[in-house]
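Try this one yourself first.
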């Protein structure tokens, strides 16, 4: 990661910078460069940091109450880096890498939270399947639009959706960690008071309330009201319903715009539907298998994260003008039929053995596809440019 950090800042001279240094010395050299202000923290660095740090709180979610509280704290810090990389991107300008990988980092973020929630019994499996189905469909839509040189703008609702997914996960965790209503209600009052304070300042300085303040106030009030009336399990379920509502409301905007754009380029828009279904078949199949082997949730996390990472890289590459037809055909003509064959094969065994076997095949397929994807574009990842062949 340190090498990648140096490479982003000094793509031409990083080999000379690191030549002759051991890994520890590379770290010292990076620190010296930072102190000399020859390196600066960029939005891309925060995105990479967020992705590589996510396994830590994910593992802690499987521990006891103290471990879960630590996980919540780390998730909050990583969520704050999402805000910071947005600030840095606006200050220093966006890059193709950041444009496509920041949303992917957010999607991996929610995958390492919501899948453990299924294992812990905090939310039903079908709600997680619906959540990730939307994310995979929209990510694939972005990639297909990039291939057609069509830009899909991020809507304001989509930005709010990401925040609601992250904040909603925190409250779902809190209602289970603190089941005592008398203890959790005062805690849930704090974000309402904080939001009212921001709203008051906004009224004084700008003579108006932004829609984000109003949305936050509405959501926090809903969270408090639900917990006043329902027990932790029902509260978490109703929180999840609101998360799904925002998730799909923002997704429908993308689908409507992309379908119209695709229909204007291709006479047969049905091809778009086929591509979308094939893109999410393997990760959704892995999630369904958790119904039979919930203890294998860690495998589903890897499958979904690897697929998100591959989709992000493919979208970036498409936006830079390189076609990925070979790997597309590999995935559609070889890997997906292999998964279908696995379903038929393991259907001859008992349910748990079948589900475990299908999960392993999904993991192998996702790992293989991501590995060839990232190895084939390693120069792009290190230099930020595509070498001419």
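Now uncover the answer:
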């Amino acid at each position: 990661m340190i090498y990648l950090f140096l490479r982003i800042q000094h793509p031409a001279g990083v080999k000379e910078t690191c030549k002759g240094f051991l890994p520890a010395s590379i770290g010292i050299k990076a620190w010296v460069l930072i102190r000399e202000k020859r390196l600066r923290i960029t939005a891309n660095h925060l995105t990479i940091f967020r992705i590589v740090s996510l396994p830590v709180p994910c593992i802690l979610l499987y521990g006891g109450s103290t471990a879960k509280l630590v996980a919540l704290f780390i998730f909050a810090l990583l969520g704050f880096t999402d805000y910071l990389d947005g600030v840095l991107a606006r200050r220093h300008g966006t890059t193709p890498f950041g444009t496509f990988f920041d949303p992917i980092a957010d999607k991996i973020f929610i995958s390492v939270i919501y899948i453990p929630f299924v294992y812990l019994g905090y939310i039903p499996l079908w709600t997680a399947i619906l959540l990730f189905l939307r994310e995979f469909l929209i990510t694939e839509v972005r990639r297909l639009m990039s291939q057609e040189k069509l830009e899909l703008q991020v809507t304001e609702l989509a930005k709010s959706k990401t925040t609601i997914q992250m904040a909603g996960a925190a409250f779902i965790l809190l209602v289970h960690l603190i089941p005592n209503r008398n203890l959790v209600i005062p805690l849930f009052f704090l974000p309402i008071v904080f939001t009212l304070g921001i709203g008051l300042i906004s009224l004084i300085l700008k003579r108006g309330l932004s829609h984000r303040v109003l949305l936050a106030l509405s959501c926090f009030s809903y969270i408090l009201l639900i917990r006043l009336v329902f027990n932790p399990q029902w509260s978490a379920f109703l929180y999840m319903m609101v998360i799904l509502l925002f998730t799909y409301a923002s997704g429908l905007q993308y689908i409507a715009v992309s379908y119209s754009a695709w229909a204007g380029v291709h006479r047969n828009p049905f091809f778009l539907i086929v591509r979308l279904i094939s893109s999410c078949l393997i990760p959704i199949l892995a999630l369904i298998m958790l119904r039979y082997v919930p203890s294998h949730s860690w495998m589903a996390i890897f499958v979904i994260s690897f697929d998100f990472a591959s989709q992000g890289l493919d979208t970036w590459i498409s936006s830079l003008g390189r076609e990925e037809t070979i790997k597309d055909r590999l995935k559609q003509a070889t890997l997906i039929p292999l998964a279908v064959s696995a379903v038929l094969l393991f259907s001859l065994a008992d349910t748990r053995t079948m589900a475990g076997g299908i999960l392993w095949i999904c993991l192998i397929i996702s790992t293989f596809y991501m590995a060839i994807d990232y190895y084939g574009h390693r120069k792009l990842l290190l230099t930020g440019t595509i070498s001419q062949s």
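Discussion: The radius of gyration is 22 Å. Residues 232-265 form the longest helix (34 residues).
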